[in-house]
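Ticket #4471: structure output looks truncated?

Reporter: J.K.
Steps to reproduce: submitted the chain below (80 residues) through the standard prediction queue, then opened the result file.
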Amino acid sequence: MMDTSRLKQKINPMPPEVEEQLVRENLMEAYKRRPPYQQNDCLGWILKAKRPETKQKRIDQVIEELRNGDRYMGMEYRAK
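Returned output as attached by the reporter:
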């Protein structure tokens, strides 16, 4: 569960397929270490996909970024 107390935008629910893939790839902890705004933005981006293949492509990108630990939605990211 993300700390949403400081987020000012709508909190996006985690789709079951995203949660399943994060668990399967052993990346749930990496996801939880990201700031709440990043968690929420990634979920919102995935949820806005209209086509199933676009949704899966976005999930794959998030998984890869978490696996590598150096990107956030295509931008350079350095964990604190």
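Triage note (M.O.): checked the attachment and the full token line is present. The longest strand covers residues 71-72.
Status: closed, working as intended.
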